[in-house]
Amino acid sequence: MADGLVIAAPASGSGKTLVTLALLRALARKGIAVASAKIGPDYIDPKFHEAATGRPCFNLDAWAMSPSLIASLAAETGSDAEFTLIEGVMGLFDGPESGRGSTADLAEDLALPVILIIDCSHQAQSIAALVAGFRTYRPALDVPGVILNRIASARHENILRMALAPSDVAVLGAIPRNTALTLPSRHLGLVQASEHGDLLGFLDRAVGCVASHVDIDGLLRLAKPLPKASAQPALPPLGQRMAIARDEAFAFLYPHLLSGWRRQGADLSFFSPLANEAPAADADAIYLPGGYPELHAERLSHADGFRAGLRGAADKGRLIYGECGGYMVLGRSLIDAEGKEHPMSGLLPVTTSFARRKLHLGYRSLKHDGALPFPPLLRGHEFHYSTIEKQEVELPLFHAEDAAARDLGPMGLRHNRIMGSYAHVIA
Question: Which residues of 195-234 are buried (b: 16+ CB within 10 A; e: fewer)?
């Protein structure tokens, strides 16, 4: 098994994603077989990890997944690697309103050390108190090292190092402030890795500006072995021959689900609705994952081959399941940000709108009555700005609660074997 570390921070916006990407790229360039994982439900960051390492990046989620599933996926991630770097989410102890789910929870589950990335741009000697607090707040958590980020000058670095000198924390690096090294964002987070014009060049520049200021050998020495665990799939497949939409409009796919479905013998094929491709004719289940259909609504509305393929599968009684963006495309129409209405597949009686933006964000506990070939109790998350403009009364797919067990009522729709909702199911 590979050795591993968790990269965390005191707060969001500290630079942990950029530092993680630079370290992954630097390790891969040194010839080290490095793997990675991302804590939480984020779809976008893992694709940047994959570009840096050339390997799939699993999500590990301490709220949605059982400890045994987390151990299984971590073991699978590190099974053919020398080193695994796991990027945290938000601040080290931040998580759902109630229950588990923080980066600290997952680091404790896996018994892995945590390296703190600290944004030092607005502090000096106070860093000693901050680091001491994060290292002692949960005694079972091992925080042996820090990386100082956004250093203003050599004098600033010296002040920080002197403040930390009385402690036994390892200062693994001091990274100068570099406002030019940023990744573009949009409404659901970073612009997707596949849309970045010069991603490998960006990663190589990050190595020069970030990783070159970090003691990578010292970082590796602090790692500890990932726990061994047997393979455990998160969910059963939707069918034994699954056709899965995959392109820039349908990019939100969890690699751990695909890996688990293949392990259970499912035959997975992929098609691009944006290229007007229809799902495989022999598929017994079709999966439309989330993504950015609102940015491609005009093209999707003219993808007659894709829509005809969906309708043909529906006529044959095939299972068709859509999540978030996929759910929107199963509806009758999609209204874009400019208020223009675009016809979609028309398989579910719902019209969604991006013109009236409202943030829906959070973990979801989901119950269903057997419509899906999944267990009746599921965990997932919701993150979108679209709203339901109108819908006809139909059977809901799920009954939903948030992470604090507040009742959110019915979610999604089902009509015969066509079904979907705004939820992304994780496990």
Answer: ebeebeebbbbbbebbbebbebeebeebbeebbebeebbb
- Helix residue ranges, H only, 79-179: 103-110, 127-136, 154-164
Contact 372, 363 (CB under 8 A): no
Tokens 């993808």 appear where? 303
Dihedral of CA atoms 369, 68, 28, 150 in degrees, nearest 10, equals 90
Which pLDDT belongs to residue 195? 61
pLDDT value of residue 180: 67
The architecture of the domain spanning 241-425 is 3-Layer(aba) Sandwich (3.40)
Compute CA distances 38 → 59, 259, 385, whole Å. 5, 16, 23
CATH 3.40.50.300 fits 3-225, yes or no: yes
Q: Residues of CATH 3.40.50.300 domain(s) within the chain?
A: 3-225
User: Which residues are 379's β-sheet partners?
Assistant: 365
Q: Looking at residue 264, what DSSP letter applies?
A: T
- pLDDT tens sequence across 68-77: 999 999 999 9
Contact criterion met (CB below 8 Å) for 92 and 104: yes
The CATH 3.40.50.880 domain(s) of the chain lie at: 241-425
User: Is pLDDT at 39 greater than 50 in this prediction?
Assistant: yes
- Cα 315 from chain centroid (whole Å): 34
Confidence band for 358, pLDDT divided at 50, 70 and 90: confident
CA distances from 391 to 274, 301, 322, 343, 373 (A): 25, 19, 16, 14, 25
Q: What is the model's pLDDT at position 186?
A: 42
The residues, any chain, with a CB within 8 Å of residue 390's CB and separated by 6 or more, are: 350, 351
Q: List the catalytic residue out of 57, 120, 209, 324.
A: 324
Beta-carbon contacts of 178 under 8 Å, excluding residues fewer than 6 positions away, are 209, 210
Active site annotation includes 57: no
List, in sequence order, every residue forming a beta bridge with 35; answer none if it has no partner: 84
Contacts of 214 by beta carbon, 8 Å cutoff, 6+ apart: 19, 22, 23, 26, 147, 172, 173, 175
Closest Cα to residue 373, out of 419, 331, 327? 419
Closest CA to 331 of 206, 422, 231, 225: 422
* Cα dihedral 47/51/57/61 (nearest 10): -40
Q: What is the pTM of this model?
A: 0.93
State the average pLDDT for the chain.
93
